[in-house]
Amino acid sequence: MTDATIQSSRRAAGLPAAVPTTAAGEPKLRKNKRKWGGWWFVGPFMIVFTLVFVAPLAYAIYLSLFRETLIGGNAFVGFENYLTALSDPKFWEATLRVSLFLVIQVPIMLFLAMFAALALDSARLRWVPFYRLSIFLPYAVPGVVAVMIWAYMYGSQFGLVADLNHFLGITLPSPLAENLIMISIGNIVTWEFVGYNMLIFFSALKAVPQELYEAAEIDGAGTFRTIWSIKLPQIRGAILIATLFSIIGSFQLFNEPSIMQALAPNAISSYFTPNMYAFNLSFAGSQFNYAAAIAIVSGLITMVVAYAAQIAGNKK
Q1: Are residues 247 and 203 in the same domain?
Q2: Which residue of 12, 22, 79, 316 has the fewest C-beta atoms within 10 A of its own C-beta?
Q3: Tens of pLDDT along 3-41?
Q4: Does 108 share its domain with 225?
Q5: Model pLDDT for residues 259-286, shown as the tens digit of each residue
Q6: Domain ranges, residue 143
Q7: Greatest extent of the chain over all pairs of C-alpha atoms, in Å
Q8: Residues pairing with 76 in the sheet
Q9: Cα 96 to the chain's mean position, in Å?
Q10: Do 127 and 63 sit in the same domain of this protein?
């Protein structure tokens, strides 16, 4: 029976025609045409991502491999700028300062955000949207404006501290003093970002299945037991994300000390944080090549710390 007869019989029986075969008896596979529709959606993002992230990063790496010389202009020095950065006491002092800031400020901020989220999710508060918006509102205030508001209250010659000293007839220590400046900056950052982290936790709590709460209630679990055994484990991913964002933000600390430097020049140096050090090297000292190396080394340290925190958070 020929192939034509077989195919006619299959069509008469309502069956699809047989797959065409080659001379060797192997079925012929249709060549799939490549579809480019997905790139119309991904393409705009890739273009913006390349322009605002990949290109500046590549240029910074390029700058870090050179050094400006009096004779001959830029000279290729390889990794010499990185070796200098690793032995720079100012850079390590700034890095240790933001590391201490991270260890103290971030847990306090996340604890306050978690407390607020749990309180809003407890179903024991009235006007939850009002409280949620009130806590989140400081994050909507531009960072520069927020620092100026708090700097005005911190001033010992004007503002809240000065008014309290005049009203009480005492001399309160200035929050802009050298031994209190990190606490003052931590207070500003906490005020700014508690609402942001609270919203992350609150959204995660709303996604917890209600069946778990019903089972806990049947088993006689109290409020704190429910929080510890159900709510916190269920929002573990949100806690990890908020922690990673906070770690990155701590190493990127710049706006608060940079703006407050004019009010506390003795307490905030030009290398108070790694970002301030790189900024001042670049725009005040015209050391663009070394500033690029400082920025890249600081970014690598941030990446390592964030990755270590992610590994620790993923362990069960």
Answers
A1: yes
A2: 316
A3: 556 556 656 555 555 555 555 555 555 555 567 778 888
A4: yes
A5: 998 888 888 999 999 999 999 999 887 8
A6: 85-314
A7: 114
A8: 66
A9: 19
A10: no
